[in-house]
Each structure stands twice: as structure tokens, then as C-alpha cells.
Amino acid sequence: QVQLVESGGGLVQTGGSLRLSCAASGRTFSNIAMGWFRQAPGKEREFVAAISSSGSSTYYAQSVKGRFTISRDNAKNTVYLQMNSLKPEDMAVYYCAARFSRLPNGVTRADYEYAYWGQGTQVTVSS
Question: Which ranges of the chain would DSSP assign to H, the alpha helix?
């Protein structure tokens, strides 16, 4: 089992920045690949970013590429999502997700690949 707790959401103006954190517990973090997803009201959940268990590979949705950065600190069992140049369309509940990965550099955007999910943190972007 893996428990995930997100934090760092809040209200920010268009063009501002936020850093989301996701603390993991329960299993060896260095064997776990992580992802961030988001869901806006009335929309389906969508992929945002992923990072491999080694941290050497990352993958981004086209809509956030160049603005968001995913990273991890295995010593702190934490994954981060640095969000810059935020837009109103980035407003959503953001979820972190975890999956065990045999491949240290594997990344995926497929939500069904992730077995564990956090409770979500709200990001609101005012225009």
C-alpha cells in the first residue's frame, strides 16, 4: 500500500506560480513512479506530468510543457509539481498518483496504470 497526501494548492492570479507537493508513505519510494493529474469541473480527469522512479525521465502534457516542472526527492519521499505562468484553464483539483515500476526510467500518462491516488488539492487561478 502507498498513501499519498497532496499539499500546496491555493488561489493565484493569472501568470503566478504555485508548487504542489505530494508526500508518499508505506512503501519504498524509490521503486515508485509518480504522476500528476487534474480534473476541472465538468471535465474528465487529465494527465499533467509524470516522473520515473529514478527521477531521470519526465513526461508532460502538451498544455503544460514549458510551464510546469515535475521533480522528486527520494530522501523526503516527496514529488513536486512546480507550476509557473498559470492560466485560468489550469484551474482544477490536482491529484498525485503512484505506481510500482520495474523500469527505473519508465513513465506513462495512462491513469489506469496508477494504483494509488491522493485526495487532491484545489488550484484556483483568477483572471
Answer: none
Look at residues 22, 21, 49 and name the one whose alpha carbon lies nearest to residue 35: 49
How many whole angstroms from its chain centre is CA 2? Answer: 15
Please check whether residue 59 is in contact with residue 3, taking contact to mean a CB–CB distance below 8 angstroms: no
Which pLDDT tens digit goes with each residue over 18-57?
A: 999 999 987 788 889 999 999 999 999 999 999 999 999 9
Alpha-carbon distance 62 to 115, whole Å?
A: 24
Asked if residues 93 and 81 have their Cβ atoms less than 8 Å apart, the reply is: no
Contacts of 79 (CB under 8 A, 6+ apart): 21, 22, 24, 34, 36, 51, 70, 71, 72, 73, 96
Neighbours of 120 (CB within 10 A): 18
User: By CB neighbour count within 10 A (0-12 exposed, 13-18 middle, 19+ buried), where does 126 fall?
Assistant: exposed
Residue 23: Cβ within 10 Å count: 16
Q: Residue 69's beta-bridge partner residues?
A: 82
* Percentage of residues in the chain having pLDDT higher than 70: 100
